[in-house]
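Appendix B, record 7
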Amino acid sequence: MASREDIKFLKNPNLGDVRKKYCRFKKFGIKHIDYKDAEFLTQFVNPQGKILPRRITGNSLKYQKRVAFAIKRARHLAILPYVTDYLK
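Structure tokens (predicted):
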């Protein structure tokens, strides 16, 4: 008979491990979100141009509101598009 060490697992034993989300603004000490930095703001927008929610980005409520406000301001000034087929 095969010993316990010889048995191969069909799935990854680390599959259930979920990484903890963190707010990158708190971690790196970013205080100001610049609405003129379109390259930075595209990290928080999906390819269709929609703002990504907190549960996906991991931002805190305070910084998610600031990011959304900066994206909306950049859209108003035509720095970011409102709608697109493929942004990134």
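Remarks on this record: The chain has four helices and no strands. The chain has a mean pLDDT of 86.
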